[in-house]
Write a structure and sequence with these properties.
Helices cover 17% and strands 32% of the residues. It is built from 8 helices and 37 strands. The strands form 6 sheets. An 11-stranded parallel sheet has the order 12-14-16-19-22-25-27-29-32-35-37, with helices on one face. Strands 15-17-20-23-26-24-21-18 form an 8-stranded parallel β-barrel. Strands 5-4-1-6-10-7-11 form a 7-stranded mixed sheet, with helices on both faces. The radius of gyration is 30 Å and the shape is elongated. The mean pLDDT is 95. One of its GO terms (cellular component) is membrane.
């Protein structure tokens, strides 16, 4: 929508969180609550996003210091005293354009859906809001309508008549308002109430009295308008969010061994016939190809996994690119800039970092491969280490196609192993090993015939 401004109220302290961090920095699905709202506002095409901050403002601004750089204009407005929702929007008023509309969201209502907000925009109304029917609306503001179904007001629980308390439709606190209405009525707000606060709901009352018809939209899912005030609510919403994501993936053909025991903390893209065992965690941007099989306890973050890969239990994979038909684990650790070509085997207790490993190569046991380029069809024996750090600098190891590295070898970088070379077990290699030859670097075995083991006295 053109000329759309989004105002996000994010000044609350969140006392019930019992945390030194502001409430909007608590995480849901691996992202701060406020980040969810910002991302949704951006996807809607907001030309300007205004965040009204208060408690812990410097922490909040620091957490999003680079957000505006990558996502357009982001403005920060301070609400030094938290005097209600109306007061929060008053703080943003001087920053609003004279024309267009403002979408008013809460930083602690993280899962409001883009489709729901688009319905607000599509309503074309001067004032539209999200409302929801609840079986138990106790304590919440009720939406009052006339016989024709038009909104005539919002009544709070403490002010409601017995008949009004039977109303199940409640106000979510999410609005789309013409800027002209905000400019007309925000200055007229009063704090003459029991809480001594300025309420945004009073704007709705004033607009209705001025003849403005209010449009309402219902969210597709109830959790879209759930707020977070304490850790119990946060945990509950986390489970609902995870369940929603899992259901979407199941509809794309993913099989979960137990849908309640998986965490998705970012964006997960999947191919067909993917299997995910229990207690698997996905973080950041993860892509899985077709026929990927992931066993229990794996953690995968910001990585891509090719077709027909098998990840055995308890692998940790971070910023890695994995080709097709790769077997990994169990208990393998792929660190950033690991690149595995098709058909690679990475076995138990193997760690890789800044490693490019060619097609069909194997690192099956108890090895560290760092700052290394390994060709195709290479066999790395158990216990092999690329010694890449001299205390100051990192150096690279290069291993040619078809090389065979015997067990417990130490390759002291910088060093090159030629194609087809064989390195004897237990060798410490400090110089280039020529192609197609056996290279050994170890002391000659000696047996001391007359030696006797010391005895205890």
């Amino acid at each position: 929508m053109q000329n759309l401004t989004t105002i996000i109220m994010a000044a609350g302290k969140g006392t019930r969180m019992q945390s030194s961090r502001p409430k909007v920095l608590q995480t849901l699905g691996g992202k701060p609550l406020l980040r969810h709202v910002l991302d949704t506002a951006k996807r809607l095409g907001s030309e300007r996003i205004i965040v009204v901050y208060g408690f812990g403002g410097e922490q909040v601004k620091a957490a999003f210091a680079d957000y505006g750089v990558h996502n357009g204009t982001l403005e920060w407005v301070e609400q030094a005293e938290q005097l209600g929702t109306g007061h929060a929007v008053q703080m943003a008023l001087p920053h609003l354009p004279t024309t267009g509309k403002s979408l008013i969201l809460s930083g602690d209502v993280p899962l409001i859906g883009q489709d729901t907000l688009q319905q607000l925009i599509d309503s074309g109304s001067q004032l539209a809001m999200v409302t929801l029917g609840l079986d138990n609306p106790f304590g919440l503001g009720r939406i009052v309508r006339d016989a024709a179904g038009k909104v005539t007001g919002i009544v709070e629980e403490k002010d409601a008549t017995p008949e009004q308390k039977q109303i199940q439709e409640i106000n979510s606190g999410i609005y789309l308002v013409d800027n002209a209405i905000l400019q007309q009525f925000l200055p007229k707000l009063s704090n003459d109430n029991a809480q001594g606060e300025y309420y945004l709901t009073d704007i709705v009352q004033m607009a209705i009295a001025d003849g403005v018809e209010v449009a309402t939209v219902a969210p597709k899912f109830g959790f879209e308008v759930e707020g977070v005030n304490d850790r119990v609510q946060l945990a509950r919403l986390e489970r609902r969010y995870q369940s929603y994501q899992v259901e979407q993936l199941q509809r794309q053909g993913v099989q979960f061994a137990d849908p309640s025991r998986v965490d998705i903390r970012g964006q997960l893209s999947v191919g067909r016939d993917v299997f995910v065992d229990v207690n698997v965690v996905f973080e950041g941007d993860v892509q899985l190809g077709d026929n990927v099989y992931i066993e229990a306890g794996c953690v995968i973050s910001n990585s891509s996994v090719g077709n027909a890969c098998h990840l055995k239990p308890y692998c940790v994979i971070h910023q890695a690119t994995i080709g097709a038909g790769v077997d990994i684990g169990p208990f393998a650790h792929l660190r950033p800039d690991t690149q595995l070509a098709d058909g690679v085997k990475i076995g138990n207790f193997v760690e890789t970092k800044k490693a490019q490993i060619g097609a069909g190569s194997k690192v099956n046991h108890l090895s560290y491969i760092g700052d290394a380029t390994i060709g195709s069809q290479v066999n790395i024996g158990a216990g092999t280490i690329t010694c890449n750090y001299d205390g100051v600098n990192k150096s690279k190891t290069q291993i040619g196609d078809g090389a065979f590295i015997g067990s417990n070898a130490s390759l002291v970088a910088p060093v090159q192993i030629g194609a087809g070379a064989t390195i004897g077990a237990g060798s410490v290699i400090t110089q280039a090993a020529p192609a197609d030859k056996l290279t050994l670097a170890r002391a000659k075995q000696v047996t001391v015939e007359r030696w006797q083991r010391p005895s205890k006295k």
